Amino acid sequence: MKKTLLAIIIIFLSFQNIDAQTTKESKNSYGILFMAGLRYDDLRMCAASPAGVKGGSIADIMFIMKHQLNKNNALSFNLPVMRPILFGIAFKMLQFEPELRYEHSKMINEKMDLVTGGGLGISLHYGPDYQSSVKDPGPSFFAMGPLFSLQTGIAFKKEMTAKSLLSLKAFYIPLFAKDRDTGTVLGGTVSYAIYF
Q: Rounded to an integer, what distance in angstroms lies between the CA atom of residue 49 and that of residue 57?
């Protein structure tokens, strides 16, 4: 009986040790992403462009939730923060584009990784069209569509763990709205992410 009890305790402690190692190896991290770029947009008003201009500059600050699947692969969820709040307060508009990204890393050296991947998200819009200006907005409408992206960049590591990522991203969004032609959004951004 004592031997059986001792064996159960040893097995239980072994599983606890394995579980602790698995938890330790599970790479969940969070971060902040700063993004800026340019886009062509033949549907939505751009707050930084005059009336009639299709597109303009784009910028956002996002909160990142990243899960390391294994040594070379990760999933990252990017939640926009700055643009939805700024557009909502200043322009009474909604532009919200959360995105799930897949990232594949290839080691360059002990301090850097090459990171490539793609993303899938959703774009939500409520506001005027591109023929409007901030001072003279037209009627608001709702539009939505899928967001597709490709990215490449360099991750900077410390103790073999990525602490920041400088990347380039290209994206495409078809936007659908009632009683309007399908909108086309094409663009590119430069971003810098810092992981905690």
A: 8
